[in-house]
Design goal:
D-Maltodextrin-Binding Protein, domain 2, 3 domains, disordered C terminus
């Protein structure tokens, strides 16, 4: 959680003023004095470097910048409210005789969230405190105060310390998404002012040696020089969890069937074929119509279990020729796979798009095999309720445009997956 995140109470105050067009009416809703609320709006405008309201004789009305930010604040508060409701509904009551407040989400503060988020990856209050630069008692008080406010247990003891309860983890995920909305709001206001500083985090799956992604990044950098892009690699399951919590904006690679969760949507970019690949001077290079019996004489290096490429390998090759399991190497690093192939007679089973550079340089080759079709969908995976910023939408359109060129067979970057 960034130290620059606006005070949640100020965000609620801004939201009510925008809804009611009145400082006095909003002050009653958020339990602030009119002067305190006026100061809260002023601080928020100062932090955002823009005016949020037009002051008129009949009330306060949102500026264009205010409308942009109000949209994000509304989504933030909705997500936070959803997280609190789900936590209360699914969590264990701290005091069975007491019920939470009528609007428990309104009691959640920045201090509460900062402490709770720190505990997600920390086994003790002390380690969580060190991670966010506060004292251990401060974290302890914040978490237990939030437990009192929601009347739900948020932490539980484990063999190595403490961990968040299932209810607390629900709140953490939706709180991260809520805070992500505010970050996007800042990005949209920067873009509106002509100083775009949008951040895009792309999850690239293991072995995603892509050409479309680098080309899309270069193109976006030409159009939006100040945009910040991070590419995160990792196994699909890890990236999916980061996507669901808002740490990653989109995934690029092989699409899953069935859909892993109803919280995401998939967009097809194109289909790609899997191939049997080896070093350029392998004994099988140049032979036509290779069969499974021909391939079984060699050892293999393949993607890890549960990836689409590995599933195809197991269905088409391992099931028919079980002896290929002998000496099998599982690897998710394309660099390591390339070195294993060039230094031995091993074979691998990947998309030919992944080795375009190596083919052009005469390092690796695709074998002519008599295998069933292995076409797999490659595309984008996003959260179902994701509202991208204008710069993020531009990035998506660039990726889709490059993919269309590839699908049409024109000279364009390619894309591979796990």
């Amino acid at each position: 959680m960034s130290d620059k995140t606006p005070n949640l109470r100020h965000l609620r105050a801004f939201h009510e003023v925008a809804r009611l067009h009145s400082i006095s009416a909003a002050a009653e809703c958020v339990y602030l004095s009119q002067s305190a609320l006026t100061q809260a709006i002023a601080k928020l405008e100062q932090a955002l470097h823009c005016g949020l309201f037009h002051r008129r004789h009949n009330g306060l009305y949102l500026t264009e910048e205010g409308k942009l930010f109000h949209h994000r604040v509304g989504r933030c508060l909705d997500l936070l409210g959803q997280g609190v409701r789900e936590t209360i509904r699914s969590g264990e009551r701290k005091d069975a005789t007491r019920h939470p407040a009528a609007d428990p989400a309104a009691a959640v503060t920045n201090t509460h969230l900062r402490a709770l988020l720190a505990l997600q990856h920390a086994p003790t209050f002390s380690s969580a405190a060190r991670a966010i630069g506060v004292s251990q008692p401060a974290v302890y008080r914040a978490v237990h105060d939030l437990e009192d406010q929601l009347n739900v247990k948020l932490v539980e003891k484990t063999s190595i310390g403490i961990s968040l309860t299932k209810g607390a983890l629900r709140l953490v995920r939706l709180a991260r998404l809520a805070l992500k909305e505010i970050g996007q709001g800042f990005d949209e206001l920067s873009d509106f002012s002509g100083m775009d500083s949008t951040s895009i985090v792309v999850g690239s799956m293991p072995l995603a040696r892509t050409y479309i992604l680098p080309s899309a990044i270069n193109r976006l950098s030409e159009l939006r020089p100040a945009a910040r892009i991070s590419v995160v690699e990792g196994p699909y399951d890890d990236l999916l969890q980061r996507l669901l919590s808002g740490e990653v904006d989109l995934l690029i690679g092989a699409l899953r069937d069935p859909l892993p969760t109803n919280d995401v949507v998939q967009h097809l970019l194109f289909d790609t074929e899997l191939s049997v690949v080896c070093r350029n001077d392998h004994p099988l290079v140049g032979r036509r119509g290779l069969t499974l019996a021909d391939l079984a004489a060699y050892r293999w290096v393949v993607p890890r279990t549960s990836t689409p490429a590995r599933t195809w390998f197991d269905q088409l090759i391992t099931r028919e020729v079980p002896e290929v399991r002998q000496g099998l190497v599982e690897c998710s690093s394309q660099v390591v796979i390339r070195e294993l192939l060039t230094g031995s007679d091993r074979l691998t089973f990947i998309s030919s798009h992944q080795i375009q550079h190596e083919q052009q340089q005469g390092i690796l080759a695709v074998l002519d095999t008599e295998l069933p079709a292995t076409r797999r969908p490659i595309g984008l995976t996003q959260r179902g309720d994701w509202h991208p910023t204008p710069t993020q939408r531009l990035f998506l359109s660039i990726i889709k445009s490059l993919s269309e060129q590839l699908s049409c067979g024109r000279s364009a970057p390619g894309l591979a997956d796990t």
